[in-house]
Amino acid sequence: MQLDQATQEQLRQWETELADEYQRIVNQKLNLDLTRGKPSPEQLSLSDALDGILKGDYKAADGTDTRNYGGLDGLPEAKQLGANLMGVDPEDVLVGGNSSLTLMFQVMLTAHQFGLTGADSAWKNEGNVKFLCPVPGYDRHHTVCEQLGIDMIAVPMTDAGPDMDKVEALVKDDPRIKGMWCVPKYSNPTGVVYSDETVERIAALGKIAGPNFRVFWDNAYAVHDLVDNPPELACVMKACAQHGTEDSVIQFASTSKITHAGAGVAFVNASPANLKGFKQFLGTCTIGPDKVNQIRHSRFLPNRDALMKHMQGHAELLKPRFAAVLDALNEAFAESDLGNWQEPQGGYFVSFDTRPGCAQDTVRLAAEAGVKLTPAGATFPYGQDPEDRNIRIAPSVPSVEEVKGAMKVFVVCVKLASVRKQLAS
What we know:
By secondary structure, this protein is an alpha/beta fold. The chain has helices at residues 8-27, 41-45, 76-86, 100-114, 139-148, 164-173, 196-203, 236-243, 272-285, 291-300, 304-333, 359-368, 400-424; strands at residues 32-34, 93-95, 130-135, 151-158, 161-162, 177-182, 214-218, 249-254, 266-269, 339-341, 350-354, 371-373, 390-393. 41% of the residues lie in helices and 14% in strands. The model has no long low-confidence stretch (mean pLDDT 97). GO terms for molecular function: DNA binding; L-aspartate:2-oxoglutarate aminotransferase activity.
């Protein structure tokens, strides 16, 4: 189906055929959900051995009784787990609760309200400050900025990561830009892995940015590969050390999509100066994290080899779901001008771009046909996709057959929205 080459008569015929097909789908009263990137029940079951793994032994390797208060930094073995996950020095890791998003919000709150390196470094001292947001991106990152009143500037994603020419120009020109969100491996939602050059240029931003600039490096999918020979992500912290910009990047990760999503362990990796400032904030609002959960995870995933073997189980469950999405898109749109998409090698999402002006109608039609999708525009700051194109597909939770069924609906909705848009133009 090539809309740009179609006559009005062809478009009207297609619209009639698609509307009939769509109504048959509506009559089925489906209830399918492709909205959020959560692990499936089968994936969660991979970690059920966490339950009872301690067998009454609550002592950490350093003798800490994990049942008691204290330990703001986290247990040494939990720090090592974070280091195994992110490829960094365990001494530069702080271990928190179950949510890396919580840590991101707390670190940004600290930087904005109190300053990571003293009160004079607080962003609020400079009035309205700004953050760069590669788009399409993660909606929860945008929500953090909105909650703190930080203005967001969208920068386009490329196949190598954020458009670094644009990023560098913006950062040089405006000292009120205080940082940038990054999902560097299997970016949410495009699946892009930042190139070595992009990582290097991001590490160097601290040399050209205004004071107290911080990149929030959300390495959520560091080990979430779907292929046998996955792409490697360069270590941004090593690049920062070479540029002398160690304070300019703060890295986050968690086990939320590795073990039990609601009962995992989250990590911050940062320079000593940043960790010191953040711990001053944490010391006012907690006596310490859940160390029992930390030691459970440390014993369940005692080393890098155990971690990667565990992730192979996740990959085996996710591969057929992603294949169902990509097979449907290739079969329906490979020879058409109705959309574009990436074929990710890992992560949790497939990003699909409709023709301009069709994403909202596609999502609305799908919802009315019983298939829930992430709202159109959610991957852009303030929920505003200027071209109304991007749709994030999250296939992890439904069964393979449910994903196949949902994609049949999705394909019809994309076609119907596109034909109607072309007829109206």
